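hiii so um. not sure if this is the right channel but i have a protein structure encoded as tokens and i wanna go backwards to a sequence. like what aa goes where. can anyone help
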């Protein structure tokens, strides 16, 4: 694990057409503003140096678009390559979280978030939920609410399939920033707890 005073949060993501990259940037921004040292790694071009950065991170936040009801194939390639870390449980006891973006309002994003959770559990990681009550869920709610799509497991975003990355919804960006901040905060708690128990 990192020996720096600030927790190190890595955002390991794939984005085929740039939409999920906007969410990844928001997650990274939220974590950085909450005090973490942040590393963003596009997993389809991951290098040996970046694998080492993941190994050294305190937390890894997984992100990918939902393609055909699961994470994109490029993310799955990364996940399969991470089996070398699974074998040695290199990532055990790190913090984990996840986010996804899709074309449909629902689009089976829960499958993708559930897949991230399962992958994290196989690595022996500790999952951090979104921690925000569902927005847009009452007569007074609106699509501008944080967590407008009502996910608990992680951050879910939706962008129309015929729109560019500039159309990523501001609520989804705010939700993603919140996930990054929560992971940074929870990771700091873990680090402080470990330090206190070791003292
Ligand atoms: C191969 C493929 C499969 C897709 N499957 C789904 C899907 O299962 N559910 C959904 O809502 N959107 C689906 N979409 C739409 C994407 O999730 C959506 O366009 C998303 O914004 C793409 O993110 P990206 O630009 O980061 O790749 C699919 C798109 C592609 C290209």
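sure thing!! here u go:
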């Amino acid at each position: 694990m990192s020996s720096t005073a600030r927790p190190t949060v890595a955002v390991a993501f794939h984005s085929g057409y740039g939409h999920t990259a906007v969410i990844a940037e928001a997650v990274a921004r939220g974590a950085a503003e909450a005090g973490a040292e942040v590393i963003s790694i596009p997993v389809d071009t991951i290098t040996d140096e970046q694998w080492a950065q993941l190994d050294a991170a305190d937390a890894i936040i997984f992100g990918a678009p939902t393609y055909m009801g699961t994470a994109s194939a490029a993310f799955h390639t990364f996940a399969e390559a991470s089996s070398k870390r699974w074998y040695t449980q290199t990532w055990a006891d790190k913090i984990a979280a996840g986010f996804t973006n899709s074309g449909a309002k629902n689009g089976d994003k829960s499958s993708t978030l559930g897949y991230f959770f399962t992958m994290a559990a196989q690595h022996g990681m500790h999952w951090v939920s979104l921690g925000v009550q569902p927005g847009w869920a009452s007569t007074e709610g609106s699509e501008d609410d944080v967590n407008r799509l009502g996910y608990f497991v992680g951050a879910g975003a939706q962008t129309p399939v015929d729109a560019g990355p500039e159309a990523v919804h501001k609520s989804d960006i705010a939700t993603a920033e919140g996930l990054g901040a929560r992971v940074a905060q929870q990771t700091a708690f873990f680090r402080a707890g470990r330090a206190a128990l070791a003292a």
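oh and The chain has one domain: 8-198.
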